[in-house]
Design a protein that fits this description.
3-stranded antiparallel sheet, 7-stranded mixed sheet, 2 domains, 317 residues, Four Helix Bundle (Hemerythrin (Met), subunit A), Rossmann fold, alpha/beta, 14% strand
């Protein structure tokens, strides 16, 4: 991927941090990339409007390539760039202000959406519910924290979420919110499902058919919950819905370095063993009881309505 000329160092660092998962979580990725566009715009030198727009388009394409699966990334970029394209700017300074204001608006909306999801999601829980979650999701954590404040949920099972152990982040965040946290191995999900009343997870992408792409292992949790007749909820901001799936495009599943699974030394010692490291999997709509968004709690089969309402004629841009 070619780096646009004169791109500031901090924008390059944001992209690298997203690529290497130092910045992770769909919401954080989306907010980071929106601010990267703002920083790139501010750094542009010159008075040629056409050159500025070309520079921003190249920057957007460069940032879009950081991670292939998290739909929040291209959706955040589209939110900002659409404002620039539709504004009809007359000067570079006007273009810079447009990008800065759009990025700020997106970040504020993203943060507000998490709070709203938390309050809406808490209503789905009953007093004394025991919950299981998978990986770390700011939206799912907001729901559990709100349910804790409402006196409904005290105990939550957290899966370790190998190989990057994001479950440890979730365990810390939820414990800080006052919940009793029980950390379990990924392989123990079915064993403990008998003790659980509800499951809630986040999402990296929601497809038009209601399927949810999330951290690998999510579909196993959903399958175990379905078998045990445990409600399975997804907490997701509407900018995680994937517009291009309306016309049949698939959400790509990212594979990362096998060394994350077994270590570099082990790989070198066993060159004849292939190690695969998929980052995400797909949970079918029929395993999902509801998707909790800032717009309301919906059936997964209502995903096309959210997409059309959110993106309209731009759904396949």
């Amino acid at each position: 991927m070619q780096v646009p000329n004169d791109l500031p160092k901090e924008v390059l660092e944001i992209r690298e941090d997203i690529r290497t998962m130092r910045i992770r979580g769909a919401g954080r990725i989306a907010r980071a990339v929106a601010m990267a566009l703002s920083k790139a715009a501010a750094a542009f030198v010159g008075n040629d409007v056409d050159e500025f727009v070309k520079y921003m388009e190249e920057t957007a394409a460069f940032l879009r390539g950081a991670r292939p699966t998290a739909v929040s990334l291209p959706n955040a970029i589209s939110f900002v760039m659409r404002r620039l394209r539709e504004k009809g700017i007359a000067t570079v300074d006007e273009g810079k202000r447009t990008v800065e204001e759009a990025a700020k608006e997106f970040v504020e909306y993203s943060e507000r959406a998490v709070d709203e999801i938390g309050e809406l999601g808490a209503r789905r829980f009953r007093s004394g519910d025991v919950v299981m979650t998978h990986c770390h999701s700011s939206a799912a954590a907001a729901v559990l924290a709100a349910a804790r404040r409402a006196g409904k949920v005290d105990r939550v099972y957290v899966k370790e979420t190998r190989p990057r152990l994001q479950g440890l982040i979730a365990a810390r965040v939820l414990a800080d919110a006052g919940l009793d946290v029980i950390l379990i191995p990924d392989s123990a999900v079915r064993y403990f499902m008998k003790d659980v009343d509800r499951v809630i997870v986040g999402a990296d992408a929601v497809a038009a058919n209601g399927a949810v792409v999330n951290k690998v292992g999510t579909s196993v949790v959903a399958l175990a919950a379905k078998e045990a007749r445990v409600n399975f909820y997804v907490a997701a901001e509407t900018y995680k819905f994937s517009p291009k799936t309306l016309i049949g495009e698939l959400v790509p599943i990212e594979f990362r370095d096998p060394a994350e699974v077994v270590g570099r030394e082990w790989l070198q010692e066993h060159p004849n063993v292939e190690v695969l490291n998929p980052v995400f999997d797909v949970t079918p709509a029929e395993y999902i009881d509801a998707i909790i968004t800032e717009r309301g709690v919906i059936s997964p089969y209502a995903a096309p309505l959210i997409l059309l309402e959110e993106y309209g004629v731009h759904a396949w841009d």
